[in-house]
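Model it.
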Amino acid sequence: MRDARHDVLFEPVAIGPVTAPNRFYQVPHCNGMGRMFPNAMIAMRETKAEGGWGIVFTEQCDFHATSDIQPYTETNLWDDGDEIYLGRMAEAVHRHGSLAGIELAHAGQDTGNLYSREVPIGPAHRPVSALNHPIQARAMDLSDIIDYRRWHRRAALRARDMGFDIVMVYAGHNNTVPGQFFYKRHNDRSDAYGGSLENRLRLFRELIEDTREAVGDTMAVVVRMAVDELMGPDGLEWHNEGREAIEMLAELPDLWDVTIGNWANDSQTSRFAPEGFQEDYVAFVKKVTSKPVAVVGRYTSPDAMVSAIRRGVTDLIGAARPSIADPFLPRKIEEGRTDDIRECIGCNICAAWNNLSAPSRCTQNPTFGEEWRKSWHPERMAPVSAPSHVLIVGAGPAGLEAARTAGLAGFRVTLAEASNDLGGRVTREARLPGLSAWGRVRDYRTGQIAKMTNVEVFRGSRLGAADILELGAEHVALATGATWRGDGVGRTLRSAVPVTGGSGLLTPDDIMEGHRPPDGPVVIFDDDGYYMASVLAELMAAEGRETWLVTPAVVVAPWSEYTLEQHVIEQRLADLGVRMLVRHTIVSVDEGEVVTRDGLGRCDRRIACAGVIGVTARIPDDDLWLALNGGVELEGAGIRSLQRIGDCYGPGLIAAAVYQGHKYVRELGEPVDGDGVPFLRERHVIEGS
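Modeled.
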């Protein structure tokens, strides 16, 4: 039964002419599927509705060819052809009693229109901001504004006719025309649409009024708007124009969806922002409007959700990332199963895949994006037809997910872990600065496994090949992980770094096991490009060491640009006094000195140091695989299948390891065509065919 403290979360909320069945609001979020992979997008949204989200929105839906955000794969509403898949999404959401919402968007000067080849438009003559394109947006004249209002109105009417219940007027993340008119730094106009705050809000007001007039009798009109940009006086601030803007428009929409801009600020990783961190910026909104308010904040705790409502911060719990990590979060709270919630870890892998123009993925939820193409459900597994014994060696992210999924399917499972701690790399990395939330990957799976009588876990059990042969399992999965290289070989260096004297390069594994260089300055060589080197630099600086971070890349932690945190990583390191040297590669290591070479000028630089930590590449720990694979003893021991999963198979992200563990069980005992495509593909209709 549901905890009575959480009853408020399931109260219906009137939003203009429609009523949300509860307070769970899946806000518009990108997903890398959209118009390119519409079946995947529809199934993903339907799963959210099935899981209890009372409102389920599309992602950004561009409504005119002058807003073409190629290469990103969001939705379009340019002409009648787009109505097919968008309408089907609304139908899918309605099947589960939820409201379907559509976010109308025009990127204005934020995109280069690479596909449509239309000249971008915006409030002023400015270079476009997306991807540093050498393209400039032209300033909209009054006739353009009239056209723009007509396009927006037409899109709202189309959304109504497709069956959507809610339409959003979007000015939220510094990437749409209404917001660009609103922000002073984008708008240098001197006409009725520039200058004063009232003038800069004029277009936004007109869009809201136009939309209410067109569809407001049957559709709720939601306004999504940023109230702070975390730029201080150089940008929008909540206590000045952010608040004044809300006050001026307070009663126009049916619901306020308030955020902070830009997307990187709005969706900060758990490394840099706690759950509910946005409350300080948005808590004022309910004080200045009588309309319901929705906020986000990576809420995963139902108690934190209830607190935000009781304290008058919000009426609806908005969520993107938590709804990805667990589409059934509302249903679990409703059923009193809060310990079954698969909590978001705030790593932003979902954002990264979208920014890579690929269908989004999730570290916690390996079924995200696979609902249609693989028919994977986040909560259900087909029961195994012939129960058999599965041995999983290694309790890292791949092994834990394999054990959980196999247990759910009804296999008899033995999970053997060499150490006394479960979680593998997740447990080790969660002890590093800022990564404690990543421990949820371990905690969710160990919690689920603990409830299963058909899963046995053995800690401190290092198995050799002979042990595995003797156990009598029919299926064996090796999830023994990987080890960081200690020779400097990686993306840039293809041979080992010459080391003269000293102890050579330490690795991230060494540091996580408690080893340290001798006292004195430390150089971290990052050829990995993601989080590990910067986290270790933060750790070394916090321990009082003079710290250098050297990388061949043009910025520190370049891959973290996709996870929306590169700028804050670099700022954090600068604040800690870490010295950053980009476009440099280690040439040699001598006792007390590192030699690096400039990738542009080919100039050598010498840095005095007491030790070097190399963050380059990893090697699979596959000794057991090599000992067992192809051996005649397997058949005699009754072992029908032997597979590697996770980092033991191919070192990668934690998300990849979890996916591998899940995939292993889904395919266990099923025929697999090694020459075929292992999923459904989206097919496009060729004109004239």
